[in-house]
Amino acid sequence: MSARIGIFGGTFDPIHVGHLIIAEQVMVELRLDHVVFVPGGIPPHKEASSVRASALDRLAMVEVAVKSNERFSVDRIEVDAGRAMHTVETVPLLKRRSPEDEWFFITGADEVSNLLTWRDPDLLLEEIVMVAATRPGFDLAKLQHLEDSLQNFDRIFPVECSRVDISATSIRRRLLQGKSVRYLVPEEVYGIIEERGLYVGESKRKDERSLKEETL
């Protein structure tokens, strides 16, 4: 029997509860059997300097974030690639493992509105249904400009999710300011951030190294 599989790709720098809420709500709304999280190793649409945690740190955070949900899993295909991978490359490789299944790609509606900047968007839409996770009140007209440019526009499917005003950028900013991000990220993710000193800023890391050297 075939399954309905969602792919949730992203930088996850870091993964936070908003990501998990979207994955859960899309899974229920579209009756997906499983959601696979695919953290990007070297995200192709971002400057390397804008990605703050290493690929392995981000992978570790995603793994602990999803482990309590038996219908969530993590695939490290893009991390292990060692190069930037575009979604249109990743999706066929994942589908090859179970070609009988029906596949969906989950991302935010704002990202979908920029789909024309992605590599081979029509080819990608031939491979999967694109799920545009929207927030309440999102103006779907923001996606209409894609209709004239994409042959497979009808394979974009909006799903309204709960409004959660959390972003990875705001989490990193709070950490740089020395503010708590507890409960904005899963507890296990918070533990990794604390243990590995992620996102705290170079000056703080230098201070910590100096203190450690003084105590040796």
Structural class: alpha/beta
CATH fold assignment: Rossmann fold
Q: Can you give the mean pLDDT?
A: 91
Number of self-contained structural domains: 1
| Envelope shape | globular
Short description:
The protein is an alpha/beta fold. Helix content is 39%, strand content 16%.
Describe the structure.
There is one protein chain. The chain is an alpha/beta fold. The protein has one domain (4-215): 3-Layer(aba) Sandwich (Rossmann fold), CATH 3.40.50.620. It contains 9 helices and 6 strands, in the order βαβαβααβααββααα. It has helices at residues 17-29, 55-66, 77-81, 87-95, 109-113, 121-127, 168-176, 187-196, 202-215; strands at residues 4-10, 34-39, 72-74, 102-108, 129-134, 156-160. It has a 6-stranded parallel sheet, sandwiched between helices. Strand 2 (34-39), helix 2 and strand 3 form a beta-alpha-beta unit. The longest helix is centred in the last third of the chain and has 14 residues, at 202-215. The protein is globular, with a radius of gyration of 18 Å.
Give the topology, please:
Elements: E1 4-10, H1 17-29, E2 34-39, H2 55-66, E3 72-74, H3 77-81, H4 87-95, E4 102-108, H5 109-113, H6 121-127, E5 129-134, E6 156-160, H7 168-176, H8 187-196, H9 202-215
Parallel strand pairs: 1-2, 1-4, 2-3, 4-5, 5-6
